[in-house]
Each structure stands twice: as structure tokens, then as C-alpha cells.
Amino acid sequence: MRIQELIIILAIMLLLFGAKRLPELAKSLGKSTREFKSGLEEE
After folding, report:
1. In angstroms, what CA-CA distances link 19 with 1, 12, 36, 37?
2. Residue 43: its pLDDT value, please?
3. Which residues, 6+ apart, have CB-to-CB distance to 35 below 8 Å?
4. What pLDDT score was predicted for residue 40?
5. How many CA atoms, within 13 angstroms, populate the side-chain half-sphere of residue 29?
6. Three-class DSSP labels, 1-43
7. How far apart, in whole angstroms, are the C-alpha atoms of residue 29 and residue 33?
8. How many other C-beta atoms can be found within 10 angstroms of the C-beta atom of residue 13?
9. What's the pTM?
10. Measured between alpha carbons, how far is 24 from 20 in angstroms, rounded to an integer?
11. What is the pLDDT of residues 1-43, one digit of tens each?
């Protein structure tokens, strides 16, 4: 993924969710990713 694509995606997310909710969404996404990986390791 190029840096321009990443910037565009971040700008769209900022418009959709607002600046106040973005850190909260990133935190929950990270937590979900960790839980998913640990679930895969258990099997």
C-alpha cells in the first residue's frame, strides 16, 4: 500500500467517525486483532 492510499483512507475515516472517536476505534481494533490472533494460536 502506498502512502497516498493510507492518507486517503485515514482522511475518510476521520470524516466518517470524527476526531474524537478515532482513538477509541483504533484501540478496539487493536484489541480485536490481539484476541483473534490468540484464538488462532489456541487451536
Report:
1. 23, 11, 26, 28
2. 67
3. none
4. 87
5. 6
6. CCHHHHHHHHHHHHHHHCCCCHHHHHHHHHHHHHHHHHHHHHC
7. 6
8. 14
9. 0.54
10. 8
11. 688 998 898 888 888 888 788 888 888 889 998 999 898 887 6
Nearest residue to 9 via CA among 1, 33, 19, 29: 1
CA dihedral of 15, 19, 24, 29, whole degrees rounded to 10 = 40
Dihedral angle at the C-alpha atoms of 22, 34, 8, 25, nearest 10 degrees? -10
pLDDT at 1: 66
**What is the identity of the amino acid at 2?**
R
**22 with 13: CB under 8 angstroms?**
yes
